[in-house]
Amino acid sequence: MHTLWRPRVLGAWRVPATGPVILAVNHAHNIDGPMLMGTAPRPVHFLIKQEAFVGPLDPFLTGIGQLKVDRENADRTAISNALAVLENGGVLGIFPEGTRGEGDFASIRGGLAYFAVRSGAPIVPVAVLGTTGRDGREDGARGGRLIRALPPLRSRVDVVFGDAFAAGDAGGRRTRKALDEATVRIQERLTAHLENARRLTGR
Asked: Which residues, including other chains, have CB under 8 Å from residue 141's CB and lie 6 or more apart?
């Protein structure tokens, strides 16, 4: 990442130095995950769609600790592997939007709340800005969902870490209602962080 582009990392000190933590990252481009892996202060284990584990990428992704997940079905193995990362005091990376999109946290899935409430691990919001071109445009399209081109070589990409927060409530509930409420709280925190990161970086 540092060879091809010019990452500017802000707030990395906000990631707890030890213990389990979840990095919740916006997702507008395919390089968002690798960009975070290359700039985070601790090794990150991402839940990555199983379709990416093909050819030489399979042993490579597995070798660096990435987790294969079936996005079409309830993948109990992936869930267990992700929880094991947190139980062992590691860092789990999640794209709360579920797939590549606008990267604005406008719609997030419930998996992030489940992992955070179940494990008790704090969430650190992360905004990756600049991977889709200036002002979110790529090849003349504003906020396109099928962005194939890479950012210009040696262009600046900002990776902004926010303050860690707990997703669960004081009572430690794990009911469906509690998870739904946690998802709302998480979305509010992630959206606020993204807005702050844009102001901070001028993106």
From this structure: none
Q: Which amino acid is at 171?
A: G
Question: Could you tell me which residues come within 8 angstroms of residue 82 by beta carbon, excluding any fewer than 6 positions away?
Answer: 45, 47, 67, 92, 115
Instruction: Let me know: does 96 contact 28? Beta carbons within 8 Å.
Output: no
The Cα 182–Cα 171 span in angstroms is 12
Pick from 158, 156, 166, 170: which is nearest to 194 by CA?
158
Question: Pairing relation of β-strands 156-161 and 6-10?
Answer: parallel
Question: pLDDT tens digits for 111-125?
Answer: 899 999 999 999 999
**CA distances to 106, 116, 125, 158 from 137, in Å:** 18, 33, 23, 16
120's tokens: 């008790």
pTM of the model as a whole: 0.84
Average pLDDT over residues 183-188: 91
The domain spans of the chain are 6-201
Q: Are 112 and 22 in contact (CB under 8 A)?
A: yes
Percent of the chain with pLDDT over 70: 84
Report whether pLDDT(101) > 90. Answer: no
Structure tokens at 84: 């094991």
pLDDT value of residue 169: 73
On whether the CB atoms of residues 179 and 110 are closer than 8 A, the answer is yes
The predicted structure's pLDDT at residue 139: 37
